[in-house]
Amino acid sequence: MELVREDTDADTEEVDAETTSLISPTREELYQNISFPNAVRRTAYHFDGMGNYFTKEWNLTEGRGKEFCWYHVELPKENQKLSLSAQHLIDVLCPPLKLQDILALVSNGPFCGYVDGALVFRVNSAGPPTSKFTHRLAARVTEKSVITVSLGRVPRLGFKRMEKSLLYEIPRVEKSNLMYGEGRAESSVDVVSENEFESVTVIKEHVLEFLLTMNHSEEADNPVPKTVSNLIVHIVDTHMDQLQDIVTTLGLELDTVELELDKGGFVLKKQMLDERRFPKMHLNLQRLLQVIAHGEQVFPRVRERCASRSWFASEDIVALEELISRLRRLKENVGFITNRVTAIQAGLDSWQAEQINRKLYYLSFLSLVFLPLSVVTGVFGMNVGGVPWTTQGDSNTRGGFRNVLVLCFALILLLLLCFSAPYLYTRLSTWRRPGRLRRSLSMNWKSFSMRSIRGGSFHGGGYLRL
User: Which 3 state secondary structure label does DSSP give 122?
Assistant: First the structure.
């Protein structure tokens, strides 16, 4: 029996070991065990410090020597709770990050400080994630690695290799876009001939409009960072470009709306008022100003914290100062657009008030027409039978209807006198005031003359004694 117990204990230990190995997976298994496989988009880059880069696997390791790594997480622009975004980050960043790191990256509001030895800054604005005016950008910076989190895609943030760029192509405009009823000879002046160049590219109208709203080049033109400080400047620069694109788009949209208002009529203005287009635009501008205000609070502190680090280059400090100045100029541009929106909304409000006054004028004109008719109908429709001293059979009070009319006119005159009493009193006071003033001046002059003569004020040259 004892031997059987020993074998049973040995089997129990083996089962416990297997259970422990199943419960405690390895580090590689933890990275592969993802609860939300397609919820977020993640990208990992490895830089060699010599101007070269390549994509790498998602293992959240740091570089060695001059090498450094960059891990970027792109949260979806969907209507979801902030706790779900935190779960997405926990799924892809833990381990090695801890809960305090995740909360520092995903929380709303501005922040810049050290968390567990790493510099963490964020410019996350509150608002619906689906809105293009809601921006969230957070970064965790160490000497050999950078982890960033953004809401949706940030233009020009990533790196990719492209053989050809559209900006270096010879453009050609579509012929259909140039012919608006004018002569073909006039419209073909700006068209590049195919015989002059070996290859041309036809630019669509919507592509050209998109390029006009961009204040930056394509992703292929991004300079590859050689240090972590270069990468931080690149991240802040792309954030500025994204805000600048939104401001440019708003300006172009506002120009189009002003042109439509100048050409449009009653239907267009009524539609804009019903849709509350400009109040919504004003609200979006306030959200954008909140994002810019967060940047004004965070980026100067990032510059101060990075200036004390030996691995942060001095030229990158200067670049951050230029970006902060650019952010302030961007805030001024947003203020100008806000004033334009307010002016347009005030113009629409005055137009709506004018339309209401015009309708009231028409209503007053109709009442002016029908009021005498209603008065005549009411007068001749009166039944004065039973009213004192209006008995029709009595010879002494035979004129009962006439007596009622006289009484009505007397009441009307009394009401008119009551309402016009303040006006009459003002006119009477104004009429009597000049007479009182002349009398008071003459009396004052006489008394002054008498006092002067009796007091001997006139001596020689006629000067008054003071």
Answer: strand
d(CA 318, CA 242): 21
Q: Look-up: residue for tokens 């979006």?
A: 284
Split at pLDDT 50, 70, 90, the class of 197 is very low
Residue 82 has pLDDT above 70, yes or no: yes
Cα–Cα dist 376/355, whole Å: 33
| CB neighbour class for 213 (10 Å; exposed up to 12, middle 13-18, buried from 19) | middle
Pick the residue with more confidence: 376 or 174? Answer: 376
pLDDT in tens, 224-234: 888 999 999 99
Supply 8's token pair. 């049973």
pLDDT class of 20 with cuts at 50, 70, 90: very low
CB atoms within 10 A of CB 412: 10
Own/partner long-range contacts of 109-113 (Cβ < 8 Å, ≥24 apart) = 109/294, 110/294, 110/295, 110/297, 110/298, 111/298, 112/297, 112/298, 112/301, 112/302, 112/305
- Calculate the dihedral angle through the C-alpha atoms of 311, 313, 314, 315, rounding to the nearest 10 degrees: -170
How many angstroms separate the most distant Cα atoms in the chain? 154
Is the per-residue pLDDT at 59 higher than 80?
A: yes
DSSP labels for 13-72?
Answer: HHHHHHHHHHHS--HHHHHH--S-TTTSEEEEEEE-SSS-EEE--S--PPP-TT-EEEEE
Pull the structure tokens for residue 420.
Answer: 């016009």
CA distance 374 to 378: 6
CA distance 451 to 457: 8
Q: Which residue has the tokens 């029709």?
A: 392
> Looking at the whole model, is its pTM more than 0.70?
no
What CA–CA distance (Å, rounded) separates 259 from 250?
14
Structure tokens at 435: 């007479």
Token pair 């539609």 in the structure block, residue: 271
